[in-house]
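S.,

Sequence below, as promised.
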Amino acid sequence: MINCFKRLPFLQVSVILIFALIIFGTLSCRKKDKIDSNPGLMLNFSTDTIFFDTVFTSVGSVTKRMLVYNENNSKLMISSISLAGGNKSNFTINVDGAPGPKLSDIEIPAHDSIYVFVRVTVDPNNQTTPLIIADSILFMTNTNMQNVKLVAWGQDAHFYKNTLLRGITVWDSIKPQVIYGHVRVDTNSKLTIMEGTKIYVHKNSSLDVLLNATLVVDGSLDHPVRFQGDRLDAFYKDLPGQWDGIYLKRGSVNSSINYAIIKNGIVGISVDSIGISAEPTLNINNTIIENESSFGLYCYAARVRSTNCVIGDCGSSSLALIYGGKYDLRQLTIGNYWSSSVRTSSALYINNYITDTLGHKHPYPLDSAFFGNVIVYGNQDEEITFDSVSSVAFNHTFDHCLLKTSMKTSNPNYFISCLVNLDPGYVNPAAFNYQLDSISPAIQKGVPLGVDYDIKGVFRGSTPDLGAYQYVPK
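The prediction came back faster than expected:
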């Protein structure tokens, strides 16, 4: 045969070789295009189980996806893709744009793949503890049955959608409370939230306390009250901006928050006190506000008393005292290491005026702002901004504080025994842990201010540390 090829002219040999390649390629393509019914061929999957974190009853989950691979050398026909639970399943599937619960005759070319999208909705069940919802996706190919498991945690809850709460309302911890839209505590009404209660707030939703209305958050050290977004999938764990915030509207009275964790919103708490009496609009103690996309605690001509609070990363100021007011803040920890976007505001911002739409400044006195045993620190060079007009009072005192600032702090009328630009030595600010490490310069640098126990119930003694946490040697 070789000798025969040698005797053929070069052009003829080339034509024969090209012809042979075409025939080989055609046969190969036909093999790939032909559906192979061999029962030994199997599908491959990007996962064997799709998990969903806690999903509230009647609220759909995020959409999850998986890939189905045909790693064989020929085309496969999937006879059916279906939910084992059929029409009664809590899950729904969609295969490359076609909805289930059952689809037939899906082709996958050789060495190709398709997407399967999955969601879950949990029906109301009147159970007070999480329950497991399970199902599976069945794949029938060439008489072979394969499956991918589906698992979700579901929980029943109380739902409030654009609700006006009148009279005396109590939320307890038996079931979570889920807010859709704006839940408002009506005029002359009161909402009390008991220890251990979990409040989940949907996107663009808030809790508003109106004129002469009162909010009482009555958490405890072991069972704090929690406010956060209503998405519990892992992706949303530390995602800020998921809900609007808690708004104590102008004229609300005598609100108190004790042992709460407020996180992942746009604003943690907004307090508007214009036109009210000299009594505090808000007493807030032993509370953590963290990971808000705008402000942590935003006070507008407010009257606020606070002890043992922590305000963590915020996209704007952690604490903003706007349009004057009256404040008594003791054993406060501010740690603003925001990294989700560019932060242009200092961690602490104080002014005594507002600017209208024409650019005119309207003053309002800052009667007093007392900061005792406070830490103000973050990842910017300047973390304190004073912005004042001289026509009204601008009274502030920092007594035994650790501050990150380039301002002069030598005036004893405003600064008493303050540490400046010393890293407070937080344990792990990236994980919102603002407890003090053993080398912190804030240890035993405070003075007794009548706050005998820290946010974790540790006795401070006669030489308290600065901030909300008292260091405990290991």
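Residues 44-154 form a domain with the Immunoglobulin-like fold (CATH 2.60.40.10).

Coffee later?
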